[in-house]
Amino acid sequence: MVTSSATVRTLSASRYLQQLCKHWSHRFTVTFDPAKGNIDFGEGQSVELSAKETELVVVVRDNEEVSLAKLETVVADHIKRFAFRETLDFNWSRQT
């Protein structure tokens, strides 16, 4: 299992967390509230989100390092679409 995390500065962390969880809730197993969320994509892939007052913490997990990079991109791109009024920086940090 490989893990990657990013802490994104934003005042809309809870809103983006909830939007992402609602967006994928029709296809995947999703649990969330305004402060935390979890999306289980199956096959060892998941996203864990936590919203703080000024930041969104995103943790992605995968069985394979190669597909982890794709998961990072997909999650970041979706959140950036929700945040079209601001620029978000995702600086992923890998843990193996």
Chain-wise SSE layout:
Blueprint (H helix, E strand, L loop, with lengths): L1 E8 L3 H12 L4 E4 L3 E7 L2 E7 L3 E8 L2 H18 L10 E3 L1
Helix pairs in contact: 1-2
Word description of this protein:
Helices cover 31% and strands 39% of the residues. By secondary structure, it is α+β, with helices and mostly antiparallel strands. It has a single domain (2-85), classed as TATA-Binding Protein (2-Layer Sandwich). Strands 2-3-4-5-1-6 form a 6-stranded antiparallel beta sheet, with helices on one face. A hairpin with a 3-residue loop joins β2 (29-32) and β3. The protein starts with a strand and ends with a strand. 22% of the residues are buried. The mean pLDDT is 96.
Short summary:
The protein is an alpha+beta fold. It contains two helices and six strands.
Number of domains: 1
Backbone shape = globular
Structural class: alpha+beta
Please give the CATH class: Alpha Beta
CATH architecture: 2-Layer Sandwich
Largest sheet descriptor = 6 strands, antiparallel
How many helical elements?
2
Distance between the termini: 7 Å
Which percent range describes the beta-strand content? 35-45%
CATH topology: TATA-Binding Protein
N-to-C series of helices and strands? EHEEEEHE
User: How confident overall, as mean pLDDT?
Assistant: 96
Give Rg in angstroms: 12 Å
What ranges have pLDDT less than 50 throughout 5 or more consecutive residues?
A: none
* Largest beta sheet: strand ordering: 2-3-4-5-1-6
What is the helix fraction of residues, given as a range?
Answer: 25-40%
